Amino acid sequence: MSSHYEAPIREPLVIGEKSYHDISVDVGAPVLGKANKSWWIVFTISLIAFLWGLGCIIYTVSTGIGVWGLNKTIGWAWDITNFVWWVGIGHAGTLISAVLLLFRQKWRMAVNRSAEAMTIFAVVQAGLFPIIHMGRPWLAYWVLPIPNQFGSLWVNFNSPLLWDVFAISTYLSVSLVFWWTGLLPDFAMIRDRTTSPFQKKIYGILSFGWSGRVKDWQRFEEVSLVLAGLATPLVLSVHTIVSFDFATSVVPGWHSTIYPPYFVAGAIFSGFAMVQTLLIVMRKVSNLENYITVLHIEYMNKVILLTGGIVTVAYLIEYFIGWYSGVPYENYTYLSFGAATGPYWWAFWALIICNLIVPLTLWVKKLRRNILWTFIVAFIINIGMWFERFDIIVIDLSKDRLTSSWTMFEPTFVDIGTFIGTIGFFFVLFLLYARTFPVIAQAEVKTILKSSGEQFKRLRAEHGDDHHHHVEV
Amino acid sequence: MYTLPRSLKLFSIILVILGVLGIAYGFLTTPKTVEEVKEIMAAEASHGEGHDETHAAEGHDGSHESNFVDTARGEEGYAERAIAHEKEAHEEAHGISHEEHVLHQLQTRPWSATFVAAFFFMMIALGALVFYAIQYASSAGWSPVLYRVIEGVTTYLLPGSIIVFLIVVFAGTHFYPWQDHELVAEDKILQAKSGYLNFPFFLVRAIIYILGWNLYRHFSRKNSLKLAETNDIAYHQKNFKFSVFFLVFFLATEATMAWDWFMSMTPHWYSTLFAWYIFATMFVSAITVISLTTIYLKSKGLLPFVSDRHLHDLAKFMFAFSIFWTYLWFGQFMLIWYANIPEEVTYFILRIQQYNVLFFGMLILNFVFPILMLMNSDYKRIPWFVVMAGVVILVGHYIDVFLLVMPSTVGHNWHFGIPEIAAILFFLGLFIFIVGTGLSRVSLQPKNDPYIKESENYHF
Fold it and tell me: Which regions span the lipid bilayer (chain B) (predicted)?
């Protein structure tokens, strides 16, 4: 994929005197070792949150949607907010693994595995909401075009909610396949390194008998490239289709043609913020600071800056066109003067501050490379992007065309509990993943060690680019 | 060193002269009075064939126009009312007869024809500049060998943007109905927009755009040449910074530029995606021209350090951004079609009914063709193949700009005749001449760029 020469101006991506063996050891360590106390504490908390959320879901489904804070005007609120939020978070994973692969960004190799895991777990959370927000979720299978005994009654393909079904399910399956394919050599590495017969058996099954022959690697790379080529339009189209849920409507504020690219940019923005949140902790607790370096964090902050900038411009465009349209209803949309001063002013300003103002600090190089500050900003963006979806959905619905239908939304404990439950579920999955999966694509990192590893860059600087150094790796 | 061959120079000069003559012919032959328009219309009616069918079918009452939305929705009268209202607002309510309306459109035609071609070539230079800035800002390792070529293409930005500037400033009510004070006095919607759509502010904005773009082009080129001369990395770092700030500036000004110069041609209509849609057209055309220029120079043996892998990458960008353009085209079209809000759909109804073949044909040129041609990775390394795809893409995006302007300014009185062809010839000649001269000023091999060695040794 890439040449062995690399410009000396580029900072190393692997720090320390790492050899191929070191990489295997470092990546294998969390899987082959035992969980410590703090892992169990965090896992227990997540599990409790998950079970609590599960209780809320069961309560909702068995009692009725009325236990949520929805009303006749605002029929979508936390459910779809959380849905879009989780789907959006998932997008960074595919962006890192697919789009950055197409752009041949070597730094993606240390973060892609965890980002893809995050995608899959986030899409699982997102996938819950379309089911549980149904009034009759037990009839959910009716959304599928299956021949049936109602005179073959089919679905109407004109609804973006149906497109969602196809988009999300395709997205989940392709992401899963893409992720698993990449895992094969790494599972094989664990299989070959473990001494426990039980683990050997399990990872033997998971790695599909990968033996790493030349032909296998050649096909492996081709498949990765093709899947990346397919996943890139997929990632754009999935969130586009999610945005169609709103943009195809005639609700002021929802009906806006910029939604498709704007939602996608927002998804990458929020997704990268979540990757930062997770990886900053993970690199520390799993001792991966030599692989997920400050440079990686800075690069991701730059992506956040770029997508945040695109989102900012989209906000300004929305705000401007709302005024420019001359349509009086536009004054109550989520990005309007009316919203800034109306009853949901706090939600409006939460969006502006979290998504527009705070990320601006990342323009300062010092702050961009400051891990603690990055963590804080990433966390704030996660909150801000939740508010963006909340504002779009709730503010726009709360003041629609007829003043007689104007109302406010108040969440109940079940709304909140369900959301907390999905966060718990997400972390349950992610924590299990972090202990059982190779969290860094070690096979890929090994391919860049000689071009981008710190010691090899030093050797080239000392002996020249064409010097054939003999280092045992 | 490249020198613009004498034959090509002569060719471009001939194009410019032919173009000037044709453009002048276009301006001189527009009807001056309503009487002349009546004669033309009578003559057209007696033909009653070919191109005139559309005119006849749709007639004066707009009955045909209404059908599209109504039949699509299976409802009667919904779009009809909107169109009728629109028509009234434009004609009867302002006391303008149909003939006067046609007269105005016919007089606008040479303006529009010139503007479409002027903007088309200007946006290629501007898009190339954006591509250039992105290469710097992203520390690209593959593209530095192309920097001189891209800089050559952006040479056209200064003259091109000045011409476009002059056209939009002097076009007045030919393009921008909101500059007509009588019309605004009767139109509440336009009055509400006058805070943005007023001439002094419009002028100031246009000055800011072309100043900002050209300053970046000037200084980035200067630094790039200084770097080659002095091997002082500070020039590279400066360019990196300039590029980042230019991209921010561009992201903002591109949106307002699109609203100012194109969206305000139909000042009642609005679409939030519009600006980014124009960007997609600009960007894909620019990358295509960069590829074509590279292939041309390489065929002359002037770019030995550019390999077919670089060409492959350029072709991939042509492929990807053709799809990206289609994505935005579809996003905008589908959402407006789906929601079918009367004040928005008129934009597409006009285009579908009066420009049907162009409107959908453009999709074949801009999407179907590139996606089929450039999918195969071997083909992307074959120069003549990329040239073929590139020409199709450029024709397609010319049509795209044509469709941005014509339906909004000349309506159904559009033709593709001497003024349009002449404008293309003029600006093509100018483009070849200026870009050719720009390329011949310095060596085509960029030196001392920190990534140049990576770029020269580039494999994948």
Answer: 7-28, 111-134, 155-176, 196-216, 242-262, 274-297, 317-337, 357-375, 382-406, 418-439
